[in-house]
Structures are given as C-alpha cells and as structure tokens.
Amino acid sequence: MILPQNAPCALVVGLCSHGLAIARSLQRLGIEVHAFEANSSIPGALTNSAHIHYVESIKDNSLVDDLRAFRQRIPLSRDIVLFPSNDSNVRVIASNIERLRGAYILSWEGCVDQVQKLLLKSNIEGRCKAVGLNYPASVVLESRGDLKYQVSSLKQPFIIKPANPQSGFKAIKCTSVAELEAVVDHYPDDYPFLVQEWVSGTDKDLYFCALYLDNGLPLVNFEGNKLASFPPALGQTTVAVSVDMPELRDLTKIFFNGLGLCGPVSLEFKRDAAGRYWVIEPTVGRTDFWVGLCIRAGCDLPAIEYLRSTGQAVPVSTGNYTPTIWFDSERDAFGPVKYLPRFVPGHGKLKRPVFSFFSRRDLKPFLRSSRKALYRMSHSLARLMVEKQNAPAPEVEVSSYPRINALPDVFLRLLEEKDQDSIFLGRDWFDNFSATVATGAGDVFFLCMADNNGRAVAVLPMWRNEGRFHGVKVRKLTGLSNYYSPIYDVIIDASLTTREYAYSFFMTYLWKEMKGWDLVDFYPVSIEARNDILKISGVKIWKFDYFITKNFYHDSCENFENYISSRSSRVVNTVKRKFKKLDAVGGWSVCIYTELDSIESKLKDYHRVYENSWKNDEPYPEFINGFARMCAKKNRLRLGVLDVDGKPIAVQLWVVANRVAYIYKLAYDKNYKNLSPGTVLTTKMIERVIKIDNVEVIDFLTGLDFFKKEWMDRSRCLYGVQIVNYRSLSGMMVLLINEISKIKKYFSRTKSEAGNLNRV
C-alpha cells in the first residue's frame, strides 16, 4: 500500500507481544509507527518496527499528560491514530477523552460511554440477560462484609475476578468460601470483585470471536479456539488456533447488536459438557492479546482499524482465512513442542504457525524473549533437581458430579478405557449399578480429578448412605460397590498419577470439603490397593483394614483336556458320574446364549431357577438383567442354561472379556440337587470358554465356597479399608471399636502362639 508523505502516523501504547504485533502489522503497510513503553527491559523494547518513546507509566493518568506532550511534537496537520493495547490503556483514555479529543484519532471516540460500561465486568451479566445469552450466576462484592452470606446463592466452586480491568490478578478459581475469603483478604485494594459459578471445562473449551464494528455494523469477523492459557483455564492465552464457527459469530453479533460500537471488539465463550456456550467476558476499545493469530491468518485487524479510522476503504472480507496456530513463546516455551502435529508436514491437517515475538525482519525481540525463556527454564530445572524425587503429580483439582452422565467427556473416556482392563470398573458397570442398585438407598457422586491441562487423571465413584457399625449408627461414604461388586478401586490414568497419590488427594478432598460423614469404607479391594490406601498422606486420619474374602482363579487354560485332567481325582470322577446320571435320565441339554436378541426369555428362566435354588432371592433383579444386556451388547455374555425335558434346572451367568472368563452368577433348582446339574453345567461352560473363546484365565470371583477351590488352582485375598472421621461422635465410637478389636486380635494371637510353644 502506497501512502502519501503526510499520511497519519500511528501510536501504539505498550510493546508487550500484543502491542508488538500491532506495530509490526502497521509498519508492514508503510505506516510510520510510534510506541509508548514504560519498561525498557521487555523484548518488545528492541523492536525496529516503531519509534519508541519511554514514559513513566502506560497504566495510570500520567499517560494522558504524555499523550498531550507527544501530540505537540508532531505537526498538527498530521493526524495520529491511537492504538491502546490493554484494558488499563482503554480505561485511562476513556476517562480522559475530553482532554484528548481532537488530538488523536480513536476508532471508538464516538461511543466512549458504551466502552466504559463494558470495561466493568459487573455490567456483563445485565447485558447477557438483556439479549438472552448464557452467563454464569454472579455476585458483585463491594466490600468484605459477610462474604459467606453474599455468595450463598452461588454453587461451588467459584471463580473470582476484579470488576475493574488490569487489577492485581486476572481470575482465580476457589473451591470453597474459605479460599474465596483468602483471595479478597490478599487483594484488599481490588474491590469490587465479581464472583461467579465455575463453568466446567478446560482451556480447549474456550472460544472467542473478534469483530470490527462500524457504528454497530460488523465489517469483518474472526473466530478462534484456545488450546492453552496461563494460569490454565483462567489466564492469558498461550496457544490458540483459528476456527470457522458460525455459531460463535452469531452469538457475538447478538451481544454487541444495538450498542452502536465502533472499532475492534471481541467476546470470549466457554462451552460446557452439554455443548452450551457461556459468555466469559468481552474486550472493547482494543484488539485482544491473540491479535497476532488474526493477522497471520489474514484478518489484519490493526490495518483495518487504521484504514477505517483514516477514512480509507476497507477491503471486503471473504472470511476465508488461512488455518493458523499462534504461540505465546514468552509464557509457554514448550507450546510448539506440545502441538507439533498441528503445523509439521506429515502430521495431518496443517496450520500455519506464528510466534508472538518472532519476525525475520525484526529478530531482536525474539532473541531477548528466548534468553528470558531459557533463564526461566534453567531456574525451574534447578528447583526441580533439589526437590524430592518422588514429588506428587502436577497440580490437580477435584470436582464432584451427582451422576455418571453428568461427567465431562474426558472422564467418561477414562472410564471407558478402564473397561478394557476390568469390566467391573468401567463406565457400563457404574452406569448400570447407579441406575438399578444405587437408587434411593443413598446419594451417588463421582469425584473427578483433572490436571492443570484439563486431562482426566482419576475418578472415584462413591455413594453416601447410612448404616450400623457394631450397633452404632453411622453416616457412611463408601465406594460405589456392594455384594454385586467383585472388585473396587480408584480409576486412574497411570501415565499421570499413581493409585496412592489419587487416593491421598481424594481423601484430602473428602476430609476438607465434604461434611456430615463418620466413616469412609472402600471394599472389596486388592492387596495392592489396600496397601496404597493405608499409605494415604496429606491428612491425619485413622485407617483400618479388614479381610473380606478370597478370589479363586485358574490362569493356565491351554486346552480343555489338560484342564480337566489336572483337577483332583475326586472332581474328575464326580464329573464322569454326573454326566452318566443325566444321560440315564435323558432329555437334557445345555445351551449357551450370547446374543442380545435371545437373552430376554432366558433371563426369565434364570430368575425362575434362582428363586427355586438354595440361595436367597435376588435383591436387585434389574441389576442382573442390565448387566447381562450390557455384556451381550459387546459380545461378552455367556448365559448357560441346562434343561431337562425342556425345563431349565441350572443357570450360570459368565462374562468373557480381555481373554478372561468371569463366573459371575450360578444357581440350580434345589429339587434336582441329586443330579448335580451345576457340576455338569460348569464343565460345559469351561469347555466352551477354553475351546471357542480361547480364554487365558478363568476367574471364580469372590467367595470362600469349598467347591471353588476344586475348580481353580490359585487364590488372592480381598480386603476392605475403613477411614474414620474422629471429628464426629459416631466416628469416635467407630474408632474406639476398631481399636478394641485390634487389641483383642493381638491378645488372641499371643495366646495362640503361647499354646503352640507349650505343645512343643
């Protein structure tokens, strides 16, 4: 673009990476660029894209005096277009517009009142309500007062922000009123505060749309998606990509429609687990921190602002921008490494990379920022080297959800992945358990741990119920398990944490954040899980473990013939006799059902046989039906039925998953006990899973029944672990009972050992 010799120049206020991007954009157009800066040590202070003028401050009213003084140094015949780069600049300029009017060209000079209103975060809720956009429930804190009462209408966790721009902090997440009080006490000069309900999600759920408005009419638009920010999900963008999302564009136009604004504006959103967009905050009076992304993609907002402000034609936007990814290389030096596949050839759909300080024609800012980044990394590395080698996982946060379908997708995926290891700890299992067992007996909740990158670290399924412990009425928090559960454990991403750390962190959360419980009980757990729970640290708690039962299994299923021949002679002879006995009766058959379409009538047979067996009635028949259906959908169900003359007399519900055959339920009609139909059906089922399903392990799950030892070769113990809340009366009673029990066991063991010595 060729400009006349006396073309208006530009003055950029501030040379952070944002201001530097504006200066470089304008300088590339041949515009004479000047810049105010107060800090000569920042990378942008070395730019060759602007004439730099150092001032006392760019954030307080002294800026106005410096602007008036600078205006006198440029001939009055030459206009100056003013480009603020942060909210403090905008606030100071708007507040003193009468002192600056006529001295500078300001794109939004004609709508200062609206700009000032939207600078205050406390005004955003009213605007969203007026135009029908989602906005988190909010409260404005004007003073310390009774803070607990002031936020009583809000659900925890909270997010707190200063209502005025460029205060002591941007935003902080608080999981309790106590944390909220600590924040306001630490920043007493930043009142008023805006406190909101936290909208669940991570950085990747944050979106934005930028517009350039001319008396309210959008001339251009640009949409983007944050991939990372610092602090995570709360701070400034460190990685962002361009996107094409018309829904963001429409929502942003709704927000700004009718306000008569001019100049650059943008609106940030957060998308929740249900796919709804919530307004976070607008930016007015300036472009946003990620303007370098817009420029690189082809939406040059500073150039558009300059052209429109000086009365020149603005090229018509087609909206077809170059896919681009932007990195703030100052705050996140490793961002390009993390998102390498986004812009390196051979790794899928490419995006053009742009780095906040890098320019081949202006290298000095990049070199200084790189030196600063290396300095920070070296100091961080030095600190890491002197910290404990077994330091816990990265910063995490815990959220509680009342039902499984309320969990964010990342946690549902973690549960689905766990299903590949253990079907009794996966999403389908807890979904069915919650829907058929944990209804009315207690309140189900899922504790979910996410790291500072929004990744799912761990899930702890729990429920709250009441019961009795040796006659003492207690309020219990237990793992989401009961007699139907062969195993219980915390579900973790082993690449991000350990079981011990997950239990410790969740227990700390329960101890500090959840009220009204006397006892936490995890059962049945493996010996490895028991040991990790007993090592829980972070809070001073009393823990007691107890034996529950054994798990019998066989782990060398090479072929059926070898398996049978390796049983005891008693079992082998019993199997032969029982087959002959059934053959003598005649008319018997065994069918094993696997398909969803074929099991409904057979489930009725299962329940009829179960009712006529020696066992107690099935307490939750719909749980069994749901479990069978969920297994059949994934071709895991093996529902064996033994008929005599068309009448079912024995049933067994097995599950085959991950090369393991689990013997989940079995029963036979007690009127046919003399035929031992259970023995025959077990033999047929084992033959099927070894010969056809090629399982490697047969697992009889829980129980101390003697016959299980005869069919299986190995066993392992299962335990429970109780954690006592000594802060409650009932908790103290439980603690006392457990301690007395330990003393009794000790003396009993000592007496037994003494008796053995006497016999020797």
Description:
It comes from Marinobacterium aestuarii. Residues 125-312 form the ATP-grasp domain. This protein is of the alpha+beta class and 760 residues long. It folds into five domains: 9-111, 3-Layer(aba) Sandwich (Rossmann fold), CATH 3.40.50; 118-122 and 201-368, D-amino Acid Aminotransferase, Chain A, domain 1 (2-Layer Sandwich), CATH 3.30.470; 137-197, ATP-grasp fold, A domain (Dna Ligase, domain 1, 2-Layer Sandwich); 396-425 and 443-549 and 721-760, Aminopeptidase (3-Layer(aba) Sandwich); 556-695, Aminopeptidase. Helix content is 34%, strand content 27%. The chain has 24 helices and 28 strands. The strands form four sheets. Strands 16, 17, 18, 19, 20, 21, 22, 23, 24, 25, 26, 27 and 28 form a 13-stranded mixed beta sheet that branches. Strands 13-12-9-10-11-14-15 form a seven-stranded mixed beta sheet, sandwiched between helices. The longest helix has 31 residues, at 729-759. The chain is elongated and about 115 Å long. The protein starts with 8 loop residues before the first strand and ends with a helix. The relative contact order is 0.07.
What's a concise summary of this model?
Residues 125-312 form the ATP-grasp domain. By secondary structure, the protein is α+β, with helices and mostly antiparallel strands.
In the CATH hierarchy, the third-tier topology of the largest domain is known as: Aminopeptidase
* Large-scale geometry: elongated
Show unreliable segments. 387-394, 756-760
Cα-based radius of gyration, to the nearest Å: 34 Å
Report the end-to-end length measured between terminal Cα atoms.
106 Å
Largest sheet: 13 strands, mixed
Question: What is the CATH architecture term of the largest domain?
Answer: 3-Layer(aba) Sandwich
Number of strands: 28
Keywords: ATP-binding, Nucleotide-binding
Protein name: ATP-grasp domain-containing protein
Organism: Marinobacterium aestuarii
Pfam families: Acetyltransf_6
